[in-house]
Amino acid sequence: MTIEEKLTILTDAAKYDVSCSSSGSTRTQSFGGIGATHASGICHAFSADGRCISLLKILFTNHCIYDCAYCINRISNDRRRAAFTPREVADLTIHFYKRNYIEGLFLSSGIISSEDHTMRLLVGTLRILRHEYGFNGYVHLKLIPGADAALIEEASRLADRVSSNIELPSSRSLALLAPEKSREKVLRPLELARDFSLERGSKPIGMSTQLIIGATPESDLEILRLSSALYGKALLKRVYYSAYIPANTHTLLPALATPPPLLREHRLYQADWLMRFYGFGYEEIVSDAHPFLDERFDPKTAWALRHLEHFPIEINRADRESLLRVPGFGVRSVGKILRARRYGALRIGDLERLKIPLSRARYFITVGGATLEPLRFERIETALLEKPRKVQPTLFDAHSALFGEL
Fold first, then answer.
1. Are residues 191 and 46 in the same domain?
2. 159 located within any domain
3. Cα–Cα distance for residue pair 51/258, rounded to 1 Å
4. End residue of a domain, out of 205, 229, 253
5. How many domains, the chain?
């Protein structure tokens, strides 16, 4: 099989893994090497389906000894299989980098032969890139659950970011659809990578995971509770949510004709953003009474409509935490307001000159005691109700220009 044939098969096989953001990474540069991970050295391009294409994103192999019901590469599927060698992946990465096609590498793999054997092949690829080619560019490596701790330690030294995909939000779903996996087995490599980086006296390596949305019946409450717990344990920098795309037939999976829950994926990213940057707890966004996110409104607006007792707030007196909870005010807008307040009380015209968006916020604030719109639930709900729209699968990066302000 030629390299081109392998590349065709193994890039296509990698398309279902969305956890490939390369932001926020730095790697010490070595003299005479090539590539860089600092902000000016990594740029992002996004394909039509919203996924990052600035990295060479491939599977090392789509051979797999696992039989996960949801996975297109499961052992029981009749698919054309291929496998690279460590040298082939390293050479492809360097050749593509020198031609300015990519800025780095995202490398995952099916499980071939055993977990340790697969992890050795992946680590061997990084050894060639780092030590032989002197490659300083970004590398995101998928850790293999069940692999030896020594291999995980070396991988965490050689990669800029590592990940291990939980895939399904609950242990009961994993037991039914991916019996070779467990949450503990998947999280163990991340715990090891975190501990190894701390032992070296460096900051924890960037880590991420992926959750498939809509393949199993878990609620948004269960999903966000899990994400919040993983963030709280300092295990993850990002959780990626992937709307389930039916690829296999199974009695416990949605039918092949079922459309992916793209709007639900979109809302989960917004909710995740609120937890990471806006000070919301998951239990404020969803609850036992409201276990699913309202698809009509973004999560912050939905929260505000359920808690009108907190509004309106006076922008000349409110603290940062309160301002961040106003629908339509993002981190940048709140920063502008706080800086401008140092020089005097703000008026409506000041907000307009500062280019503070008021289309949603106007119902929830007063400016110098003046109300912009009466705070009536019926009026607000009608005005803020989002029209149904087609939502593309979106991989949000940590850049508010891509995300917009909540």
1. yes
2. yes
3. 21
4. 205
5. 2
Q: What is the pLDDT of residue 36?
A: 56
CATH number of 195's domain:
3.20.20.70
Q: Quick one: which of 246, 356, 96 has its CA closest to 107?
A: 96
Single residue among 139, 170, 205 that ends a domain in this structure: 205
Q: Are residues 189 and 44 in the same domain?
A: yes
Backbone angles phi, psi at 181, to 5 degrees: -110, 160
Q: What is the pLDDT of residues 282-324, one digit of tens each?
A: 999 999 999 999 999 999 999 999 998 999 999 999 999 999 9
- Looking at residue 237, the DSSP 8-state letter turns out to be S
Give the per-residue SS3 of 157-175.
Answer: HHCCEEECCCECCCHHHHH
- Both 196 and 319 in a single domain? no
Q: Which helix (H) or strand (E) holds 105?
A: strand 104-108
Indicate if 199 and 95 belong to the same structural domain: yes
Q: How many residues does the chain have?
A: 406
Name the pTM for this structure. 0.84
Residue 191 domain-assigned?
A: yes
Strand arrangement of the beta sheet that strand 206-213 belongs to: 55-59, 104-108, 138-142, 161-163, 206-213, 238-243
Q: Is residue 309 domain-shared with residue 194, that is, in the same domain?
A: no
Helix (H) or strand (E) holding 117: helix 115-127
**Residue 257 CB neighbour total at 10 angstroms:** 6
210-237: pLDDT as tens digits: 999 999 999 999 999 999 999 988 778 8
Asked if residue 242 lies in contact with residue 16, where contact means CB atoms within 8 angstroms, the answer is yes
Cis peptide before 388 (omega within 30 of 0): no
Cα dihedral 71/77/81/87 (nearest 10): 30
Taking all residues of the chain, what is their mean pLDDT, rounded to a whole number?
85
146 inside domain: yes
Residue 81 scores a pLDDT above 90: yes
- 34 phi, psi to nearest 5 deg: -125, 155
Contact between 393 and 51 (Cβ < 8 Å): yes
Range of the domain at 46: 3-205
* 111 within some domain: yes
